[in-house]
Amino acid sequence: MRILITGAAGFVGFHLSKSMLNKENEVVGIDNLNDYYETNLKTTRLDILKKMDGFTFHKIDLKDKANVDAIFEKYKPEYVVNLAAQAGVRYSIEKPYVYVDSNLVGFMNILEACRHFPVKHLLYASSSSVYGGNKEVPFSTNHNVDHPVSLYAATKKSNELMAHVYSHLYGIPTTGLRFFTVYGPYGRPDMAYFSFTKNILNGKPIKVFNHGKMERDFTYIDDIVEGVEKLIPMAPQASSNWSEKEDDLSTSFAPYKIYNIGNNNPIPLMRFINALETALGKEAEKIYMDMQPGDVMRTYADVSDLERDIKFRPSTSIEVGIKKFVDWYKEYYQV
Ligand SMILES: NC(=O)c1ccc[n+]([C@@H]2O[C@H](COP(=O)([O-])OP(=O)(O)OC[C@H]3O[C@@H](n4cnc5c(N)ncnc54)[C@H](O)[C@@H]3O)[C@@H](O)[C@H]2O)c1
Description:
binds nicotinamide-adenine-dinucleotide, globular, two-stranded parallel sheet, 7-stranded parallel sheet, 13 strands, Rossmann fold, 11 helices
């Protein structure tokens, strides 16, 4: 398989690239290596990939159309997994235009490139945040997601809409992947599990939002990678008898599909902190705070489509996954 992975120096992109290379695929990685979080972590991930057979890297920003086109023209990828994006809910309140550049203009350039240099399947990261203010759980891809509560979520929902148009107009098979709070080794320093670990080890307090009354469907990175890999060859087909009345918003008359990839097991924030304290052997000093703007109370993935289509569901428990993360953290930062 010749596969283009955008955001290859990022957390998910690194793990997916590594796993695909281990299975003797050819991976072309692109990333702009921006400094949203420590760039050392991105270059460390890249250094690992660059030592592997079959990996090529280009430092490119998705918003530069000519550069994106040149990559498609040169490599003619069969499969594309678009993971490059400005991630983070809270940052989208501080820096909204960065989300427009990377997540909207950047994704548009990927769609146009797939139109002019046809691919067998385009997969792209969406997010559990598209469920916004929805209350019914577990979150199903059959639920309406028209009520986002952050610009980040709105850009991810927009990606799904843009992909649908390109699937319809140009027959590009597209699959949107709604990831649920991904964590693990080489993870993202801006996410709570990472900054909590740092603070607990340094004897600094951690901020517990909404007084701990929150739940997240934490999903271990290896489960995400396995799910994505199984979906890559599964290009969706147009459903000829599709009807919006039949309660299947995740498929279409176009070759288009949306999946949740989450653990299907929401963890209360306090249990998650407890798992971290156990793995670190140290109790956290906690500062209880109100809910943050843009945050949601709970995420919880319905993964029945994954089970039906690829016979897979994430299964790593928070205790096992957090222990693996903490072991990696201590070794990487020499704690
Ligand atoms: N990690 C999670 O919990 C989670 C949850 C839901 C959705 N997602 C989505 O999954 C994808 C991967 O997330 P991640 O956790 O690996 O994030 P990440 O920030 O570690 O990786 C994204 C990578 O994309 C690169 N990038 C950003 N904008 C770019 C641009 N304009 N051009 C080129 N490269 C650019 C960044 O430098 C980074 O290396 C993202 O689309 C994210 O929104 C992640």
